[in-house]
């Protein structure tokens, strides 16, 4: 008796969705690196760079959040686990990114410990969202 192992792809990523998903992680990572550069040099321009990078990540992240919501609403009732996790990650990433933008709007000396911590958290969340978004989950069954 022969057994076959069948692999099937669960969902695929639309090309526009893939492009949108490619922006938040590098932008938040750039903001984190700018915060670390400010922490070591105290050159105020680094905080301006970080603020603009966070603003760009939030702009693209808003469209990504909308796309993830549409994907969640269009998912079949039995397969909502991955889209729900993906949507929640992007929602938390965007919300904490917005808080990070508000912290970056403070005075340069006042924002320093909180800005780096929030930038690290948001960068990790953006990486996790990109990981889940770009990964193609496969399920297999033996017949």
Automatic annotation (TrEMBL):
Keywords linked to the UniProt accession: Membrane, Transmembrane, Transmembrane helix
Membrane spanning stretches: 49-73, 85-106, 112-134
Domain DUF2231: 14-134
Claim: Oxidoreductase is one of the keywords in the record: no
Protein name as annotated: DUF2231 domain-containing protein
Annotated InterPro entries: DUF2231_TM, UCP029509
Organism per entry: Allosphingosinicella humi
The keyword Signal belongs to this UniProt entry's keyword annotation: no
């Amino acid at each position: 008796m022969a057994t076959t192992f069948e692999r099937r792809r669960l969902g695929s990523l639309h090309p526009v969705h893939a492009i949108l998903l490619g922006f938040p992680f590098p932008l938040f990572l750039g903001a984190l690196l700018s915060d670390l550069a400010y922490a070591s040099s105290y050159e105020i321009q680094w905080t301006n760079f970080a603020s603009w990078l966070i603003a760009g990540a939030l702009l693209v992240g808003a469209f990504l959040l909308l796309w993830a919501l549409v994907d969640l609403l269009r998912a079949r009732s039995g397969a909502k686990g991955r889209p729900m996790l993906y949507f929640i990650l992007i929602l938390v990433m965007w919300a904490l990114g917005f808080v990070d933008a508000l912290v970056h709007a403070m005075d340069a000396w006042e924002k320093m410990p909180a800005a780096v911590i929030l930038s690290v958290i948001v960068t990790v969340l953006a990486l996790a969202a990109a990981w889940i978004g770009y990964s193609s989950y496969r399920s297999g069954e033996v017949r």
